[in-house]
Amino acid sequence: MYKKMKILIIGSKGFIGSHCVAYFTAKGWDVYQADVTASSSKSYYKIEAENASFSAPFKDHQFDVCINASGSAHVGFSFEKPSQDFELNVVNVQKILVAIRDFNPSCKFINFSSAAVYGNPQFLPITENSVCKPLSPYGFHKLQSELLLTEYHKFFGLNTCSLRVFSAYGPRLKKQLFWDLYQKALKTHFISLFGTGNETRDFIYIDDLLQIIALVIENSPFQGSIYNVASQVETTIAEAAQLFTNEFGPEKQIVFTGEVKVGDPNNWLANMEKLKKYGFEPHYNLSLGLKKYAEWLRKNE
Q1: 194-223 burial, b for 16+ CB within 10 Å, e for fewer?
Q2: Counting beta carbons within 10 angstroms of the beta carbon of residue 184, is it exposed (0 to 12), middle (13 to 18) or buried (19 or more)?
Q3: Which intervals hold domain NAD-dependent epimerase/dehydratase (predicted)?
Q4: By CB atoms within 10 Å of each CB, which of 80, 169, 177, 208 scores lowest?
Q5: Residue 2 above 70 pLDDT?
Q6: CA separation (Å) from 39 to 36, 43, 158, 174?
Q7: How far apart are alpha carbons 189 and 177 in whole angstroms?
Q8: Is residue 63 included in any domain, yes or no?
Q9: In the chain, how many domains are there?
Q10: Angle at 293 between CA 291 and CA 295, to 5 degrees
């Protein structure tokens, strides 16, 4: 279906990045990696954690595609260290764009944005044209990264695309709701969570997210394009938490404190029509996805 391409994955050791490496390697693509940790692999570039430079891989190779899965993905961190979050999610994106412009201008660039750009939407489902009112520095920084991709397409002709990921989960994820649930369940019978439990999210399993990346590479015009990345299914936090807990500790009790976590939205449900036109169909409902995630946790933790 897809011709073999040369692809660079920045943030290749992270949750989404590592899955991208496995996915495109399995497709037979020529996969190169970049991240802040050391590696002996010949097709790997070590990026400095501070004052990062992204020129080297683009000087050495002409890539068909570059996926940036690096940066911070933690709302709380953006309140604690807004300057670092800005560096990781905005400054580094601009540096990547400059490197592509200077050395590899035909490269298709995909950057991971976030549904955090929307904040609390007025209407559901959320379309890509919904008003953006972020609730956190993280959300604002992701919105700024999107503007950079628009800028570099408009003024420099680069092929750019932003993916607004809603609530992605699956094997190798070691943060956010389900990871926290699992960690707490190991230590206590009563699992305490923020909120009321009536808040909603639109969850997407990692394999469905990978399907979206492949469809975007093949079909997107890459004109500063923006896509929601979700399943178009609204689930309450209480329902999701219970589904997951049933996989490894059905006797555990989940208690919601009612305390609102700063930066957290109330309700999310994505409109996925743009990607459905490219042929996107989720292969994993939440029950199946959480079963696979729980299996991985039991084997690896």
Answers
A1: bbebebbbbbbbbbbbbbbbbbbbeebebe
A2: middle
A3: 7-230
A4: 80
A5: no
A6: 9, 9, 30, 21
A7: 17
A8: yes
A9: 1
A10: 70
pLDDT at 227: 98
Helix, strand, or coil here: 181?
helix
Q: What is the CATH number of the domain that holds 104?
A: 3.40.50.720
φ, ψ dihedrals at 101, nearest 5°: -60, -40
**DSSP H or E run through 205:** strand 203-205
294 φ, ψ to 5°? Answer: -65, -40
What tens digit of pLDDT does each residue of 125-144 get? 999 999 999 999 999 999 99
How far apart (Å, rounded) are the C-alpha atoms in residues 121 and 269?
10
pTM: 0.96
Strand 190-193 with 65-68, pairing: unpaired
Say if 215 falls within a structural domain. Answer: yes
Please give the pLDDT value at position 162.
98
pLDDT in tens, 209-260: 999 999 999 999 999 999 999 999 999 999 999 999 999 889 999 999 999 8
SS3 166: coil
Domain extent for 19: 6-237+243-300
Residue 1 is assigned to a structural domain of this protein: no
The owner of tokens 């995909």 is 110
Q: Give the separation between CA 215 and CA 224, rounded to whole angstroms.
A: 16
CA distance 301 to 105: 43
Tokens in use for 142?
């992701």
Dump pLDDT digits (tens) for 87-99: 999 999 999 999 9
Does the N-terminal peptide bond of residue 171 adopt cis geometry, omega within 30 degrees of 0? no
Per residue in 19-58, pLDDT tens? 999 999 999 999 999 999 999 999 999 999 999 999 999 9
Q: Which residues contact 241 (CB under 8 A, 6 or more apart)?
A: 177, 181, 191, 193, 197, 254
* Backbone angles phi and psi of 4, in degrees to 5: -65, 130
